[in-house]
Design brief:
The chain is mainly alpha-helical and 186 residues long. 65% of the residues lie in helices and 0% in strands. The model is unreliable at 1-18 (pLDDT under 50).
Length: 186
């Protein structure tokens, strides 16, 4: 079991590195840096740069999702939150990545945002899916369920103290657990 978790962590890490290795076409990058280009113009250039069979931002395949995430990441770094908002309005939830810095440790999420996240998860059994995806064992999940008023907070804290847990990783876990709307709150 422990080996499977380690393998998933390595796979997740290599997928994240692969995703970060993608670079935007020069035309899109230049438009992104230009304050005179509006977000719709950049989105159109981005669509043109994708292969024709990937051009759907509304129903993207896995490869297109990586490109969308890359563009959203570059937009955040460039301070183009208008573009991130535009991408979020046309792409499915759980595609663009978090609004918070992806490399931010989850323990550094502001209290208000962290409380909202964990309350949304603890309202039902969704937190258990997330805890399992994060590698908690069934007995650990049962323990947290019986002893914490906000078990999602306990689970995230427990995992974050065992290993580094970044906001980008949590975003991916939430999306993988079919909780993309909660992921987009990050």
């Amino acid at each position: 079991m422990q080996q499977a978790i380690g393998e998933r962590d390595r796979r997740s890490s290599s997928e994240g590195n692969e995703e970060r290795a993608i670079t935007l076409p020069d035309m899109v990058r230049k438009s992104l840096l230009s304050q005179s280009c509006d977000s719709q113009e950049i989105v159109n250039q981005f669509k043109e740069s994708l292969k024709s069979n990937q051009a759907s931002l509304e129903k993207p395949d896995d490869e297109t999702k990586k490109w969308i995430r890359c563009l959203a990441r570059e937009a955040k770094v460039s301070g183009r939150f208008d573009l991130v908002k535009s991408l979020r309005s046309i792409s499915p939830a759980g595609t663009t990545g978090p609004l918070l810095p992806e490399n931010l440790d989850v323990r550094e999420i502001l209290f208000k945002e962290g409380r909202q996240l964990t309350m949304e998860l603890s309202g039902g059994d969704d937190w258990k899916l997330v805890a399992e995806e994060l590698g908690l064992k069934p007995f650990e999940i049962r323990f947290l369920d019986k002893r914490f008023l906000n078990p999602a907070e306990g689970a995230l804290s427990y995992v974050a103290h065992k290993r580094i847990l970044k906001v980008g990783d949590l975003y991916d876990v939430l999306a993988a657990c079919d909780l993309p709307l909660i992921a987009d709150d990050l």
